[in-house]
Design goal:
Order of helices and strands: EEHHHEHEHEEHEHHHEE
Radius of gyration: 18 Å
Number of helices: 9
Helix content: 40-55%
Strand content: 15-25%
Number of strands: 9
Length: 257
């Protein structure tokens, strides 16, 4: 949303929506609108944002999770997992005892995920907000979120919810666009992001504004070190991160011990 567009709800504390400032009460609706527009073209969106590398990064995420191969029950919650990319990869890699629950606030994203996952067993969909997960304490054995947490209004609240729904001894894993840490690559990626991605969004999807927000939201997201600190503040231990493709994305992990 351009800076000169008026926020539909000017009440309450302000927060960022890309580079624009909006009220906290309005932000979630604006984010939902973006994803309702791109749901049917989600893979295309990620291809444009990552140059196609998101597929390899998601494979890395599942490899890092190391799903159990046995029949012992193991429950994954994949938050903001809408179209099911990560959950499906997890189930393909895991044993018969594993199950996955996708929790996403976007009805349109989940409808796309259900369409893709038709007939797949051990996969369920629950509509819910990452800041207030509709599950009991200590239910899941692992928590993943891929390219979703930067769209949350209160990241600290979402991290606290992740900690709450995980069993002791369980792992949190987050894949997210991050801060490029390689000289020259950072300038090249910035130029591509702010010039090419919105233009390509307009050309191939007829929607430049959604793609502009997605680019801007990356620049608003905390650095790798700061996000690691936020994960620790939520109670997780042994927090680590690994840069992917020079920091264009990163995988953060932590344990609830």
């Amino acid at each position: 949303m351009p800076d000169d567009v008026k926020n539909p709800d000017d009440s309450g504390t302000e927060t960022s929506f890309g580079f624009a400032r909006v009220s906290e009460t309005a932000r979630q609706g604006l984010v939902n609108e973006v994803f309702s527009k791109v749901a049917s073209r989600y893979d295309l969106m990620n291809d444009l944002m990552s140059g196609g590398l998101h597929r390899l990064w998601k494979a890395d995420l599942v490899t890092a999770l190391a799903p159990p191969k046995s029949d012992v029950p193991f429950a994954l919650i994949d938050v903001a997992g809408g179209t099911g990319d990560v959950a499906s990869r997890f189930l393909d890699a895991a044993g018969k005892g594993s199950s996955a629950t996708i929790c996403d606030i976007s009805k349109e994203m989940m409808e796309e995920g259900k369409r893709r996952a038709k007939g797949r067993e051990r996969l369920s969909f629950v509509q819910g907000n990452a800041e207030s997960l509709p599950f009991e304490d200590r239910r899941f054995d692992a928590y993943t979120i891929a390219f979703g947490i930067r769209n949350v209004t209160h990241i600290d609240t979402a991290l606290a919810e992740a900690y709450r729904v995980l069993k002791p001894g369980s792992r949190f894993l987050c894949l997210e666009f991050s801060s490029v840490e390689m000289p020259l690559l950072d300038r090249v990626y910035d130029a591509y992001s702010f010039n090419a991605i919105p233009a390509l969004g307009r050309l191939v999807a007829g929607d430049a504004e959604s793609y502009r927000y997605l680019v801007e939201s990356i620049r608003r997201f905390p650095t790798q070190e700061r996000f690691a600190e936020m994960i620790q503040d939520a109670g997780f231990e042994r927090v680590r991160y690994r840069n992917l493709t020079g920091g264009i994305a990163a995988i953060h992990s932590g344990w609830r011990l």
